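Format notes (please read before filing issues)

Several people have asked whether sequences and structure tokens are stored in separate files. They are not. Every record keeps both together, in the order shown below: the sequence lines, then the token lines. Line labels are part of the format and must not be stripped during preprocessing.
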Amino acid sequence: MSKPEYTTVRMRDDRKRRLEMAAIEVGYAKKEPYKWTDILFYLIDEHLDEAVKDLKNKRLKNT
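Then the structure lines:
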């Protein structure tokens, strides 16, 4: 079995802080630890297609 490959994501501190606060909120509600990366992965896995459609539509409206 091959090892998964990883990369880094560069973002401003305020965006990371929003993810950290969301992870704290979810962790508190579920009574188990959540990391900010768990929130980020969820957003990518569950909402990427919707974001792509939304961004395409915004571009079409602006042209």
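For reference, the curators noted about this record: The chain is about 70% helix and 0% strand. The radius of gyration is 15 Å.
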